[in-house]
Amino acid sequence: MGSARTGSPSTPSERQLSGSGSPLDEGTTAPPRMRIGVLGCGLVSHMYLPNLVESPIVDLVAIADLDSALAEQVGRQYGVRAVAPDALLEDASVELVVNLTPIHAHVGTTRRLLEAGKHVYTEKSLAPTYPEARALADEADRRGLVLAAAPDTLLGSGFSAARAELDAGAIGRPAFASAVMVRGRVNESSWYTAGATPLLDMAPYYVTALVSLFGSAVEVTARSTLWQPGEKPVEASEGAQLGADAIIRFASGATAMLTLAWTATTPHPETTRLDVFGAEGIIHFPNPNNFGDPAFLTRYGTDERSEIADSRQPAALRANLRGLGIAEAAQAIREGRQPRCSAHLAAHVVEIITAIAEAGETRAPVAITSRAERPRPLAAQGRNALLPTPVGVGRA
Fold first, then answer.
1. pTM over cut 0.85
2. For helices 343-362 and 130-143, what crossing angle results, to 10°?
3. Domain check: are 42 and 172 in the same one?
4. Are residues 172 and 95 in the same domain?
5. Does residue 36 lie in a domain region?
6. Domain, as residue range, for 212
7. What are 79-93's pLDDT values in tens digits?
């Protein structure tokens, strides 16, 4: 099965995985689309593949999974060739691999991909511990490779427009934030409920957002209700059945209160709040797990919430734009810079999340040793250049 792309490759290496060409038309000044592969064909792959196969920045030429039958099935669905994982690693024409393996496999698979000379974009979390996350980031640097990590939702219009308002001083000097996530309760123990795994799965959206707003964290205090591996769910007399409450202090002087709770008795995807309070008002950020929900501004002394301009995603775009961070990372590689969703940012986030778990157990403050730069905001024009052309809209 060949790639869904059109065109005829001129070299054997271009034919090895895809059977179709990725070079741009002759005479164009833009760099060729980066040839990428996907490792892992589970449920999360279907959140990425619709956007990747239509990307103007990357050329998806192969997918791989240990379950070869699953890889073949997904490959037929999206018109992309399925190969064995080792074949994906060994093909020199594949520059970047998207790692969509389960959380517990991220470290080993990412390390193998880096050893094979591939740039990597991995699902969150980068690693289950900070030392492992830092080691992967350092390994990528040592090899001159780019390692990027989810979430990329903060590159969407909702968060980007709200952050621009914050940076422009719309609410004066920011002082603190309140972030809350409520999800449906978990009634059975599994690998997902063991230890800090649920935090490593969901906290990256909120912690990455807070670091993007306030910069590096320096200390965490927390209380948590986490299950040990194999522990059966218990009824909590008060508070969440599973989750954590944390106070995160930042080097900038700002403070954030973060609550993650798997406690709702009715099934629903997620209920969230992310509010930043400043000297003059409040910015109500969108769900950091989504790309284009609108954001709002409230001035102190009024009850009116005004929608922040350009925060609401255009209706012509898919609601889910996962893969935006992959396109941005490919662009960063071509430009010789670090991506916005960098490994060092992701490692700092892992240290904060694991500190929440530790502080929740010890009831003592935990110092954060790493530092991370706030990623540069992504303007609308730059975002549009990374996205598939909306239906019915021509690209200039």
1. yes
2. 170
3. no
4. no
5. yes
6. 157-313+343-371
7. 999 999 999 999 999
